[in-house]
Write a structure and sequence with these properties.
Number of helices: 20
Structural class: mainly alpha
Oligomer: single chain
Length: 452
């Protein structure tokens, strides 16, 4: 069946697998973004950005991370910031989603192969209803971003002129919904000037959470009025997301309550908002309302754990995902209770899911440890700072303790690769490098060994 999505015939000619097309597509977007950001028009000073710094910024934007080596608000011109914004939107929704949008606008059919690629991109188990899901993704994203942009613009119109407020509203609505964490307030401030502002906190946290729970869950919630039931996936995502946010808020509030560098400067109401926000943002968002470098080490390490867990499948976020973490906890609980099956919400989960969750977790842990060890050698900074930055890159979070702008050339390249791996997913990269094999036609005899 011939494809009708534009500009992908060359991929088919090369006979690339869906994972390989995804990797190539994201790499192409990053390369185009790099070239555009190197143009003199992209910088406020009119000077060309160095290739390594342009590559880092384009990778961070396309992989919706938010780590920056130059200040977005002061270094880049309006043109450069718009380039970054487009990369965020393409990277957040996925380049195949954007390609499908153009195909739908042109009223062209979506081929079987294109559906296979979309299935891989959206991390779906089947192709059934994949185009319908893409339509919902596009509509939900546009509605949420537009609504948030209006609210943020109205709030910031009190602090700046209307045109600037509108621009700030649109930029930050897109950035936060896609969990990118880029801001244009300048001087690496992020949202620290609004630690106690209810409007900014509520709107931005809503954007982060809605972008992080995944489009499948969003569609399920909207359809709940008709179906009066939620899928198991939605139940797990919503319950684990709520639990992590609640636990994170309490832990951060307790750890930072008397910290003079962060919460000590705020009144009680602002402390609650700040604790809530700092609990939400490690879910791969990257924005912050207090100085991350000023947090206590216990809080910083706790945020490393939250970042490692990350958002949910089929979302704009990274990390090992909430469902993976839930499955690992379920496996531990089942083992302690002497049960063979993992049961969640009265559903038994297949052993294959456990193996996949274990593989993802172990690969992610190995990547973070390996990159942290190498950066400890090349950068010579405190290990917690390096671990924080590495986890932030892998989980495409964007929170920083201040190391990223001071990275060496080797460090920048390594973080770029880590962000790329985190956005695409380790299994997708593994399948792209070496396609998965079919089922074995025979089994080896069962062996026994002592564990524990």
């Amino acid at each position: 069946m011939a494809s009708t999505i534009p500009n992908f015939k060359e991929f088919r000619f090369l006979k690339l697998s869906p994972p390989q097309i995804l990797v190539l597509g994201f790499a192409t977007a990053i390369l185009i973004g790099t070239l555009l950001l190197m143009l003199p028009y992209s910088s406020a000073s009119g000077h060309s950005l160095r290739f390594i710094d342009a590559l880092f910024t384009a990778t961070s934007a396309t992989c919706v991370t938010g780590l920056v080596v130059v200040d977005t608000g002061t270094y880049f011109s309006t043109f450069g910031q718009i380039v970054i914004l487009v990369l965020i939107q393409v990277g957040g929704l996925g380049f195949m989603t954007m390609a499908t949008l153009f195909a739908l606008l042109l009223k062209r059919k979506i081929s079987l192969r294109d559906r296979l690629i979309l299935q891989e991109a959206m991390n779906q188990s089947s192709m059934e209803g994949i185009v319908r899901l893409i339509r919902k993704v596009l509509v939900y994203s546009l509605v949420i971003e537009a609504s948030a942009a209006v609210l943020l613009s109205l709030r910031w119109a009190a602090d700046m002129n209307v045109g600037r407020a509108l621009y700030f509203g649109v930029f930050h609505a897109v950035s936060m919904f896609n969990n990118a964490g880029f801001d244009i307030f300048g001087d690496y401030r992020s949202l620290t000037g609004y630690a106690g502002d209810p409007v900014v906190n509520i709107v931005v946290m809503f954007l982060i959470i809605s972008g992080g729970i995944g489009f499948i869950v969003m569609a399920d919630l909207i359809d709940y009025r008709k179906s009066r039931r939620l899928m198991l996936h939605s139940k797990v995502v919503l319950s684990m997301t709520a639990a992590l946010i609640l636990i994170g808020t309490v832990v951060i509030f307790i750890f930072e309550f008397t910290n003079p560098n962060t919460f000590g400067q705020l009144n009680l109401g602002s402390k609650i908002w700040a604790a809530f926000f700092q609990s939400v943002t490690p879910r791969t968002a990257g924005a912050n309302t207090v100085d991350i470098a000023g947090l206590r080490q216990a809080t910083q390490f706790f945020m490393v754990i939250l970042m490692f867990i990350g958002a949910s499948p089929g979302s704009t976020g990274g990390g090992i995902k909430t469902t993976t973490f839930t499955l690992m906890i379920g496996a531990v609980v089942s083992m302690l209770r002497g049960r063979e099956d993992i049961v969640l919400f009265r559903y038994r989960l297949a052993q294959e899911r456990v193996f996949k969750a274990l593989t993802i977790t172990l690969l992610a842990l190995l990547l973070v440890v390996a990159v942290s060890m190498v950066l400890s050698t090349t950068e010579g900074r405190p290990f917690l700072m390096i671990l924080f930055e590495t986890t932030s890159a892998f989980a495409t979070v964007g929170l920083s303790m201040g190391l990223t702008p001071e990275l060496s050339e080797a460090g920048k390249i390594l973080i770029c690769l880590t962000m790329f791996a985190g956005r695409l997913g380790l299994l997708t990269l593994a399948y792209a490098l070496g396609p998965k094999q079919g089922k074995a036609l025979y089994k080896y005899p069962e062996g026994k060994m002592i564990i524990g």
